[in-house]
């Protein structure tokens, strides 16, 4: 993975994705005692960063591969992104999803034209996708693919183009594709930039892999941050995290929910726990940032239903 691949991806997907805004937050700058900027990637098509990687992968396929269709696995955002990109490019798509996927994700994925196959859990969904792959469909992995990572890395290029003086970036980690792509892009442009990862308790496959020294498989995803619910990370993303990230912070769901409320009240946007956890991590990491630091929080997704939010608040 290198900057050339990410720059190529940026040009390839430019007609199909939004360049999302980067803005300074006075409130969060005051709370954290540093200069805080927010990358509003939740304004991307389908409500998350995922179309960047999906389009880069699908646009790389030959006409023959496109004619065979694609298959993907997801608990939400990757599903919508692949469905949206496939629909845009007139490619047939099947998405294997766990049965506990929130209804709003299922509805949106079907609404973008994909066929949805429900499986008991995310592990079974990966098994079902493998069956479709043996039948000829191209598998669009949510993170273990250099093309997908390069597409997600375009978020990092935009950050550095809009804020050349950035010193720190906090990005959430599911399988690790976005956080590592952003880190590679940012550090290739400015090597002294520091990239920090964050997970939630119960969706912390990367932290556990770092501790074990090798990829591990989680027995279950227990965090409310379903879009961070990768059951495992791969050697590719683990190696990239070790090389490019300063650390991976793990925060409890309660802190992610608290951050959702604060972001909604101050920034007037509704984020997923997978995005709000960046603010929770920033609070835990604040001693690493000085008055002259320029910290970017990547709000990677906003696909949270109002009913789920109400449930989180009732149980908090």
Short characterization:
This protein has 316 residues and is α/β, with parallel strands linked by helices. The protein has helices spanning 3-13, 26-32, 51-60, 63-68, 77-88, 103-111, 122-134, 146-162, 177-189, 205-212, 235-244, 253-267, 273-285, 306-315, and strands at residues 22-24, 35-39, 70-73, 93-98, 115-119, 138-140, 168-172, 194-200, 245-251, 294-298.
What report would you give on this structure?
- The structure is a single chain.
- With 316 residues, the chain is an alpha/beta fold.
- It folds into two domains: 217 residues, Rossmann fold (3-Layer(aba) Sandwich), CATH 3.40.50; 90 residues, 3-Layer(aba) Sandwich (Rossmann fold), CATH 3.40.50.1100.
- 49% of the residues lie in helices and 16% in strands.
- It contains 14 helices and ten strands.
- The strands form two sheets. The chain has a six-stranded mixed β-sheet with strand order 1-2-10-7-8-9, sandwiched between helices. Strands 5-4-3-6 form a four-stranded parallel β-sheet.
- Helix 6 links the parallel strand 4 and strand 5.
- Helix 3 crosses helix 5.
- It is globular and about 55 Å long.
- The mean pLDDT is 95.
């Amino acid at each position: 993975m290198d900057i050339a691949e990410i720059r190529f991806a940026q040009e390839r997907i430019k007609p199909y994705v939004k360049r999302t805004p980067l803005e300074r937050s006075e409130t969060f700058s005051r709370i954290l005692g540093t200069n805080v900027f927010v990358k509003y990637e939740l304004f991307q098509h389908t409500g998350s960063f995922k179309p960047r990687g999906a389009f880069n992968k699908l646009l790389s396929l030959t006409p023959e591969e496109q004619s065979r269709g694609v298959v993907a696995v997801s608990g939400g955002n990757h599903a919508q992104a692949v469905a949206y990109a496939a629909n845009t490019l007139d490619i047939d798509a099947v998405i294997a999803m766990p049965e506990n996927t929130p209804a709003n994700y299922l509805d949106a994925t079907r609404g973008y034209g994909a066929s949805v196959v429900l499986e008991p859990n995310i592990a079974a969904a990966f098994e079902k996708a493998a069956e479709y792959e043996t039948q000829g469909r191209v598998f669009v992995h949510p993170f273990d693919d250099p093309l997908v990572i390069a597409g997600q890395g375009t978020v990092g290029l935009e950050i550095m183009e809009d804020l050349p003086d950035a010193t720190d970036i906090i990005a959430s980690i599911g399988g690790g594709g976005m956080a590592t792509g952003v880190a590679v892009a940012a550090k290739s442009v400015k090597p002294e930039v520091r990239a920090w990862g964050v997970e939630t308790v119960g969706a912390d496959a990367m932290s556990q892999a770092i501790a074990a020294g090798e990829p591990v498989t989680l027995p279950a995803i227990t965090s409310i941050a379903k879009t961070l619910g990768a059951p495992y990370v791969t050697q590719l993303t683990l190696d990239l995290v070790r090389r490019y990230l300063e650390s991976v912070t793990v925060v409890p769901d309660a802190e992610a929910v608290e951050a959702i409320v604060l972001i909604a009240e101050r920034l007037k946007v509704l984020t997923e726990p997978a995005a709000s956890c960046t603010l929770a991590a920033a609070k835990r990491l604040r001693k690493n940032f000085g008055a002259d630091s320029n910290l970017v929080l990547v709000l990677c997704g906003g696909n949270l239903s109002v009913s789920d939010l109400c449930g989180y608040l009732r149980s908090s």
